[in-house]
Amino acid sequence: MSAEAVPARDATASGEARAIIEVRGLEVGFEGRVGVLAGLLGRRGARARAVDGVDLDLYEGEVLALAGESGCGKTTTARAIMGLLRPQAGEIRFEGRPLGRRLRAYRREVQMVFQDPTGSLNPRKTIYEIVAEGLRIHRISQGPNGETEEELVARALSRAGLRPPERFYLLYPHELSGGQRQRVVIAGALVLDPRVIVADEPVSNLDASVRGEILALLMKLREELRISILVVTHDLGLAWTVADRVAVMYLGRIVEIGPAEEVLQRPRHPYTRALLDVVPEAGGIDRPILSGEPPDPTRVPNGCRFHPRCPAVASGRAARLGIEERCRTVPLAPLPAAQDHLVACYLAELGERP
Q1: Which string of b and e fits 222-248 if b means at least 16 CB within 10 Å?
Q2: Number of helices and strands (H, E) in the chain?
């Protein structure tokens, strides 16, 4: 594992802000599927190591992008942070304290915006009922300054860009556009005045014409309300647009983390470089696509997890540098939570670029 210190992008990543969420040694696994006969015989499927030793900090007022291909463990990490999945190992702390049995209070402070706004909204409820639902679940009858439920709902809809809010009260999700539905999902999170929003691919199902509007809204909320935002994404172009820091995941591990400008302009891991190579260039022309099969979390390779797909290994460059044996056989330790630019790669240990 190699760590390279770089200048922080802003106060958020420089240590002046404190970590609001701390993840240490997080592990989440799932039992693989087996056939009917194997199940009757009591055999169990291979265990998928979806998250396999993740350390991560989210700072107050920060936008942190958790990036990687489908199946790399980023959404599982986000769901574990939300308390929606029980980890097999590790700890999640909020404001310095372990979650323990404080999940109800924690979920008021940490809200999730899901990928599919249509699937997130109950089609049988009005927009008012959908946004007010969080208040009712947490038994909040009035705001800190005596606001009524209707005033809290109206404020949340307004903050989410649905104005005048009264116009949306009696509408149903199917009567709204995709962008408006995502704004309703965001309003449902905002109504509780959360400290953190976890956004899982928040614009991937939206038309290009409204993606920028939703991203601008999230950035506005960060600036005005000092909300910390964890954005789960496969799109490093989106990460470049919104994030203060980027953590790149591969096969259950963070393999590179640091300030967005450093990670995306000067990547140190071949996987990060490969992800950047599929970001469309100006004119809509794609660069070469990452080769190899998507990772299988039930069969984690020996050595560096990326070595079966690593261009440095495939081209013979790792052999020429004398690190191929380590790449294939010696596991790299999980990266610690970091403010600076860290990378888990034997090339980086030599000071080599991917």
Answers
A1: beeeebbbbbbbbbbebbbbbbbbbbb
A2: 16, 12
The DSSP bridge pattern shows strands 89-94 and 19-31 to be antiparallel
Whole-angstrom Cα distance, residue 241 to residue 217?
A: 13
Better pLDDT: 187 or 18: 187
Tell me how far apart the alpha carbons of residues 81 and 199 are, in angstroms, rounded to a whole number: 12
Maximum CA pair distance of the chain? 70
The answer to whether 104 touches 285, Cβ cutoff 8 Å, is: no
63 bridge partner residues:
229
SS3 label, residue 25: strand
The H or E element containing residue 301 is none
**Beta strands of the chain (E only): which ranges?**
2-4, 19-31, 47-59, 63-67, 89-94, 97-98, 110-113, 196-200, 228-233, 245-250, 253-259, 341-343
Tell me how far CA of residue 262 lies from CA of 105, 159, 216, 239, 256, in angstroms.
Answer: 36, 32, 22, 12, 11
Three-state DSSP state, 108: helix
- pTM value is 0.89
pLDDT digits (tens, 9 = 90+) for 30-81: 886 544 444 444 545 678 889 999 999 999 999 999 999 988 999 999 999 9
3-state class (DSSP) for residue 4: strand
CA 267 to chain centre: 19
Token reading at 23 = 């993840």
In the CATH scheme, what is the homologous superfamily, with its name and number, of domain 2-102+239-349? Answer: P-loop containing nucleotide triphosphate hydrolases (3.40.50.300)
